[in-house]
Amino acid sequence: MEQAYLNRDATYDGVFFLGVRTTGVFCRPSCPARKPLPQNVNYFAAPRDAIMAGYRPCKRCEPLNVQGALPAWIRQLIADIEHDPTQRLTDADLRVRNLEPARVWRYFLKNYGVTFHAYCRGRRMSQALTQLQDGVALAIPSPKSTTNESGFCDTVGVNNPTQRENHRSHGIHSTTAPMSVG
User: Fold this and answer.
1) I need a labelling partner for 144 at 20 to 30 A (CA). Which of 36, 39, 97, 136 fits?
2) Strand 25-27 relative to strand 56-57: parallel, antiparallel, unpaired?
3) Total domains present in the chain
4) What contacts 22, CB < 8 A, 6 or more positions away?
5) Helical residues (DSSP H) of 35-174, grouped into ranges
6) Active site residues
């Protein structure tokens, strides 16, 4: 796989995807972008795996683009999500855009292996992880938080009051601002 991406071998496009740890981006093996060091690369079998691991799609090779150009409605929807990953698009929001939620759901599931809402959740999770890496303090939800709010804590392994207290006692502090992840 390493040789395939170093040689930009397009015959491997769709066979695997590579995530670049230093940028948080995932690409096709044939991506024209400068190649990362091998120790900074993770390999994924599908875009879904890369998204759920917190990577966002590359803007140069567009790994979510399947067999030619994306439909305009998908291109606009993804652009809106990339512009503001924190927004929560509901089925009602999709209908306001004249999009049938079931159609959006089927398209994402068929082409990316995740539902539209799972894709959005993955992008929010990715943004939260990036903020943590950049030293931005995030709120750690209380045990009474909703499952959507506590999803981030479950992902990073801070999922009970004892662990939260241990993080605080080791100098890891959080603000009390609400956080919307899920």
Assistant:
1) 136
2) parallel
3) 3
4) 36, 40
5) 47-52, 72-83, 91-96, 101-112, 116-133, 147-156, 161-169
6) 27
- pTM for the model stands at 0.51
24 belongs to a structural domain: yes
pLDDT single digits (tens) 14-63: 888 999 999 999 999 888 889 999 999 999 988 888 988 889 999 888 88
Instruction: Give the separation between CA 17 and CA 12, rounded to whole angstroms.
Output: 9
Q: Sort 98 into a burial class: Cβ within 10 Å, 0-12 / 13-18 / 19+.
A: exposed
Question: What is the number of alpha carbons within 13 Å of residue 16 lying toward its C-beta?
Answer: 14
Separation of CA 81 from chain center? 10
- Write out the residue range of the structural domain in which residue 92 sits: 72-123
Give the percent of the chain with pLDDT over 70. 73
Give a yes or no: residue 97 inside a domain. Answer: yes
Flag whether 128 is in a domain: no
Q: Is residue 8 part of a domain?
A: yes
> Shortest CA distance to 35 belongs to which of 58, 14, 66, 65?
58
